[in-house]
């Protein structure tokens, strides 16, 4: 009969794997058995029966020893956060995991209301887990300003506007602030390079570039498309004071339009 701490190779025990095993007792029921050795210790402290029983009755949620505030990271870099059913933001939950994208939750808490599905929140610096409100809020202001500006320019009403790519008239709530050149720090807040677009052109047609180019030329002149492409090649980093100044500027522009 092996003694606690004895070791044996897998082939000696008739196992196919190439590992070292150690004779150890279960932490709960004290049953002795061979356990795979890792760093000089048994890989599992409990036997299979005790482990299953412990997992069924172990604390969950905030009572669990490994609780991290209900925050997890997705494979694409975005953070998810658990939302309780009594939260005012429960309507934003769309999955069985009861989690929402953390940057959307941060924005919702900032606005003190749940976000609608068509309200898109962007990370200014492109870092998907940087969910500081100052890295999120300014885009929402800029998007609102662009859509208001173009609604008034094309229809004279703040409630309806024309898509720059296809020319269709849509309600304000169904318009996006779409970039002509894909988003980059240099053109993120370009007032000529971002215009009101219907969701079909912006999302489903990936910007509808041909229609967008025609709309830009009609709106700003022949050279604007080339100028925007040159602008996008520049390197731009925003300092905190620049973001603060931009936020004030956008607030004033929204009041004006």
TrEMBL record:
Q: Which SUPFAM superfamilies match?
A: His-Me finger endonucleases
* Coiled-coil spans in chain: none
InterPro entries for this protein = His-Me_finger_sf, HNH_nuc, Phage_lambda_NinG
Please list the residue ranges annotated as the HNH nuclease domain: 103-137
Q: What is this protein called?
A: HNH nuclease domain-containing protein
């Amino acid at each position: 009969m092996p003694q606690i701490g004895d070791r044996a190779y897998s082939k000696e025990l008739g196992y196919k794997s190439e590992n070292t095993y150690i004779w150890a007792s279960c932490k709960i029921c004290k049953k002795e058995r061979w356990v795979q050795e890792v760093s000089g210790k048994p890989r599992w402290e409990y036997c299979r029966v005790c482990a299953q029983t412990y997992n069924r009755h172990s604390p969950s949620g905030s009572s669990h020893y490994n609780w991290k505030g209900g925050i997890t990271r997705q494979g694409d870099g975005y953070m998810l956060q658990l939302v309780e059913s009594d939260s005012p933001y429960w309507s934003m939950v769309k999955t069985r995991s009861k989690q929402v994208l953390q940057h959307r939750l941060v924005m919702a808490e900032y606005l003190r209301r749940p976000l609608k599905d068509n309200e898109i929140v962007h990370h200014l610096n492109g870092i998907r887990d940087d969910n500081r409100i100052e890295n999120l809020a300014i885009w929402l202001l800029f998007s609102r300003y662009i859509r208001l500006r173009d609604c008034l320019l094309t229809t004279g009403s703040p409630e309806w506007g024309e898509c720059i790519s296809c020319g269709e008239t849509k309600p304000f709530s169904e318009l996006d602030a779409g970039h002509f050149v894909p988003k980059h720090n240099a053109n993120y807040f370009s007032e000529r390079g971002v215009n009101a677009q219907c969701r079909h052109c912006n999302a489903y047609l990936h910007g509808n570039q041909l229609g967008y180019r025609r709309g830009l030329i009609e709106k700003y002149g022949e050279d604007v498309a080339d100028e925007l492409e040159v602008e996008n090649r520049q390197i731009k980093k925003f300092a905190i004071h620049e973001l603060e100044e931009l936020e004030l500027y956008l607030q004033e522009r929204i009041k004006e339009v």
